[in-house]
Write a structure and sequence with these properties.
Elements: E1 4-6, H1 10-20, H2 26-44, E2 50-56, E3 61-67, E4 72-78, H3 82-91, E5 96-97, E6 99-104, E7 111-117, E8 126-130, E9 133-134, H4 138-149, E10 154-162, H5 164-173, E11 178-184, E12 187-188, E13 194-195, H6 201-206
Parallel strand pairs: 1-11, 4-5, 4-6, 4-8, 8-10, 9-10, 10-11
Antiparallel strand pairs: 2-3, 6-7, 12-13
Bound molecules: 1-O-pyrophosphono-5-O-phosphono-alpha-D-ribofuranose and uracil.
Function: Catalyzes the conversion of uracil and 5-phospho-alpha-D-ribose 1-diphosphate (PRPP) to UMP and diphosphate.
Catalytic activity: UMP + diphosphate = 5-phospho-alpha-D-ribose 1-diphosphate + uracil
Binding site for 5-phospho-alpha-D-ribose 1-diphosphate: 79, 104, 131-139, 200
């Protein structure tokens, strides 16, 4: 059963309020999505294990902690996941980045895959799949299936906003994948948009439409 975490940190919630606001323009929207992704990366990596090392400070030896050689991979779902990538890499600069390209057919709402490129050592990495929106769940479900098919076993999903329908579908398809959110919204509308959501994440990030 997937565990669902909603990050209630005041900075995340404050910035999300501006991301949702339809008055927020493309430049500010893009900056805010990146900042929230960085803050969420800070929270999602809380369980990384540390190992002790010794360093020389200018004053003398100090026992210090470093992350214990965990190999991480970040996989944005194109397009909108790209908006979160740099924020996460600011916090986890050693992570490698894979890409899964999917778009939702506007008629059927089913995802259509058009691109997949992952790091070579997929089996050795823990992955964070990122997409601002988890609506019907179709895109995240297919993206995760695609990286599992290529050997990934340890996967987390990080989104800004989810609908309960998407979380339920994700849990049914991939009960081993935990979900990390900035907000759980009310529902989907008839076009598969999250209500109240933030609109079309890709269009708002890239200024299309
Ligand atoms: C959006 C969003 C997700 C997907 C969520 O992408 O970024 O990938 O919809 O919807 P779902 O949970 O119902 O699958 P979209 O298909 O609009 O493509 P884009 O990122 O290229 O704009
Ligand atoms: N994709 C988006 O960008 N927004 C939604 O609300 C649903 C799917």
């Amino acid at each position: 059963m997937s565990k669902v975490f909603v990050f209630d940190h005041p900075l995340i919630q404050h910035k999300l309020s501006y991301i949702r606001d339809k008055q927020t323009g493309t430049k500010e929207f893009r900056e805010l999505v990146e900042e929230v992704a960085a803050l969420m990366a800070f929270e999602i990596t809380r369980d990384l294990s540390l190992e002790e090392t010794t360093v020389e400070t200018p004053v003398g030896p100090a026992v210090a902690n470093r992350i214990a050689g965990k190999k991480l991979g970040v996989v944005p779902i194109l397009r909108a996941g790209l908006g979160m990538t740099d924020g996460i890499l600011r916090m986890i600069p050693a992570a490698k980045v894979g890409h899964v390209g999917l778009y939702r057919d506007p008629e059927t709402l089913k995802p259509v895959e058009y691109y997949v490129k992952l790091p070579n050592d997929v089996e050795e990495r823990d992955f964070i799949v990122i997409d601002p929106m988890l609506a019907t769940g179709g895109s995240a479900i297919d993206a995760i299936a695609s990286i599992k098919k290529r050997g990934a076993t340890n996967i987390k999903l990080m989104c800004l906003v989810a609908a309960p329908e998407g979380v339920k579908a994700l849990n049914e398809a991939h009960p081993d994948v935990d979900v990390y959110l900035a907000a759980m919204d009310e529902k989907l509308d008839d076009h598969g948009y999250i209500v109240p959501g933030l609109g079309d994440a890709g269009d708002r990030l890239f200024g299309t439409k």
